[in-house]
Amino acid sequence: MSPTERTKGEMTDSSGKADPAGGRPRVVVEDATIGYDKRTISDRLSVAIPDGSFTAIIGPNGCGKSTLLRALARVLTPSTGAVLLDGKEISSYKSKEVARRLGLLPQSSLAPDGIRVADLVARGRAPYQNLIHQWRPSDEDAVAAALAATRLTELSGRLVDELSGGQRQRVWVAMLLAQDTPIMLLDEPTTFLDIAHQYELMELFRTFHDEGKTIVCVLHDLNQAARYADHLIVMRDGRIITTGTPHDVITADLVEDVFGLRALVAPDPVTGTPSVIPLDPRTATVRPVEPHDADPNHVSPLPRRQESTR
Q: Which segment of 13-22, 29-38, 260-269 scores lowest on mean pLDDT?
């Protein structure tokens, strides 16, 4: 059975976990046309998110990556086709039912004025609140665990507005973690962060994945996508060009075809995952790789500065 064929009668339990007997991915896009108002971004798009994967959606600017992610999160409704969550159209669920199954970290978020870190993180527990069940010890435990996992416990009493950009992003991640969903959707989570905070955040997402969560992340950095994801979705002009593992997908030909960039793809000396190295546009030659270049323990000396002959 193909991943886009519907399974009738698939059941889910109260935790939002799909019946494994269904044998199909929890999140599936079927022949969906997605866009904004009358502008179509993707036409008749079909794709499935492997359960338990760390999936990165990559592609050039404006290709429809974030549009696809918003459709997965029910922020956008396809004009035709469907997004399926646990075998049912996602539009058929109540909002809190969806929010107990998947959570979204958007590109940018604005915190209310004067709110403190712990109070913002606590808002992640909203899907579990109702007139009968208000704040419970389990909610307190979930918030405390989210603060600890994102190293924000000591900052829990601080105003969000007082924090640095990297700290604020961790607060939003903590709120998403407190929501305690098995599926996490992340829209360009490292944008505007310096390189240290980018990798700190990506390591945090890898931890969530190792703990069993399905991660779907829109990324611009191909090397980060190849290092952290185990499944890639490559998009261009609203279409899906290919899907697969980083080793199968990231090639010099694909980088040139999709991004218009001539590049060398070589193993990352630290992780062994594909690493994209742009070629110098001023020359068509590639420096031959010396034997020691493949040795991760070898450190090349800095080139000597040439004396001026003037």
A: 13-22
